[in-house]
Amino acid sequence: MNAMTPPAAFKPDTKLQPLKRDWPTALKALRKLLGDKDDTVQVFEIMRALNGRATRDGYDKLLGTLGGGRMAYERRELSAVLMDREALAKYPAGSLAAHYLAFTAKGQIDAQGLADVSRQVERDSGVDLAHPYAWFGRRTRDVHDFWHILTGYDLTGLGEACLVAFSYAQTRAMGWAVIATGAALRGVRNPSAPYARAIWEGYQRGKSAKWLLAEDYEAMLGEQLEPLRARLGLTPPVLFDSIPVEIRNNGLPKD
Predict the structure, then answer these.
(1) For labelling, which of 57, 92, 103, 139 has a CA lying 20 to 30 Å from the CA of 150?
(2) Which Pfam families match (predicted)?
(3) Considering only 51-55, 187-191, 214-218, which range has the smallest mean pLDDT?
């Protein structure tokens, strides 16, 4: 498979139906997620239950951006690009590609793993359809680790919560809002560090930054990280950085 071909698991083309919001399923998944930040399945359960028209609206917005029409026409699959680590290793030190390789190696994660989890949850909702909206949904999923790197949020519980708040500001997907709110409410219960304020800062950073879903990520791979952040309007995560790494998981206490 290359970046221009769809995954082998693509289903025959069918009409995508609007998804009604399912709050009981979302809240049940949220409780599980707040008890185990690594339970990625619950993230996709929440997003599937609550996102409604967010993917469609995002795709329509993409068509109105400079370069968005071309990317939508080409419908390149980012997961294929991200899994070619040999090609990514050819980019210079300090580039987005180099940071991506280091970030995923340290976290022992990859794009294929995220895609597999999404298919486990969304197998009946069209994630692998040969359809523009489904393609945009996959693209939104596949840029998640890029957003970790661009925003400076790590893989700790707090880092994920801050990125979730950032993602809501960028996508207006209700699932992200619910996860961020749940994490912030738990953070308030621990006054030892500004956990909830750091999550709110993530939302504010998402609002002030450029719309990252309109960016050409393949073209960005060779850009140096710091100038790239400046170009995208990504200010430093001051409150998040003020919290020592060793206590960033303490802000989301389990029940």
Answers:
(1) 57
(2) Coq4 (PF05019)
(3) 187-191
